[in-house]
Amino acid sequence: MSPRCEQWAMRLADSNTRNRLELLYRELDCLSCLRKEARAELARQVRRQPAWKILKQVPGLGPIRIAYIIGIVSTPFRFRTKRQFWPYCGLAVVTCSSSDYEVVGGKFRRSKKPIGTRGLNRNYNRDLKYVFKSAALHASTREPFKPYYDRLIANKMKPELARVTLARKMAAITLAIWKKGEGFDADRLIQEA
């Protein structure tokens, strides 16, 4: 019996409940081992894909994330531009407006009221959004994306919004290098920022 199971089992007075708890912990231990094996096999299988050599150059994307991207997207040519890829990833900003025009002096004119944003789109691939947001969280602490993230924070952007912006940047870079078949260039990232 594992130490954490013993810790909780000692608190239970009922032997039936203790037995059920021990069985559940044994099941958890088996599933944890199986999960590790499945991740190792997934990482081994993704290395056979032609896109692997291109996508592994993007910092923050490891073998598991790349396997998710390749498995979900299949081909980057499904998306003509990054603006079509972002909604699929759940990273597109939704804007809405119900008062574009107002009546002034009996004439219609464009309203000066700013367009309201309503967050990110709701119809998206949840796995792909998780991949890019977790990659952005990882990449925000490492080169070459750290200076970009720090610059966003220095411009008084909230950390959550800065991570979403970084996730959008990473998604755009991933799509671009995958479509073109060229390598990731950190110097180009710094110049664009």
Give an account of the 3D structure.
This protein has 193 residues and is mainly alpha-helical. It has one domain (49-192). It is built from nine helices and four strands; from the N terminus they run αααααββββαααα. It has helices at residues 3-9, 15-46, 50-55, 63-73, 82-89, 126-139, 145-154, 159-180, 186-192; strands at 93-96, 101-104, 107-110, 116-120. Strands 1-4 form a two-stranded antiparallel sheet. A two-stranded antiparallel sheet has the order 2-3. A hairpin with a 2-residue loop joins β2 (101-104) and β3 (107-110). α5 (82-89) crosses α8. The longest helix has 32 residues, at 15-46. The model has no long low-confidence stretch (mean pLDDT 87).
Total beta-strand segments: 4
Number of domains: 1
Helical proportion, percent range? 55-70%
| Order of secondary-structure elements | HHHHHEEEEHHHH
Specify the structural class: mainly alpha
How does the SSE layout of this entry go?
Elements (H helix, E strand, L loop, with lengths): L2 H7 L5 H32 L3 H6 L7 H11 L8 H8 L3 E4 L4 E4 L2 E4 L5 E5 L5 H14 L5 H10 L4 H22 L5 H7 L1
Antiparallel strand pairs: 1-4, 2-3
Helix pairs in contact: 1-2, 2-4, 4-6, 5-8, 6-8, 7-8
In short:
The protein is built from nine helices and four strands, in the order αααααββββαααα. The chain has about 190 residues and is mostly helical.
Keywords:
extended, two-stranded antiparallel sheet, 61% helix, single chain, two-stranded antiparallel ribbon, 193 residues, mainly alpha, 9% strand
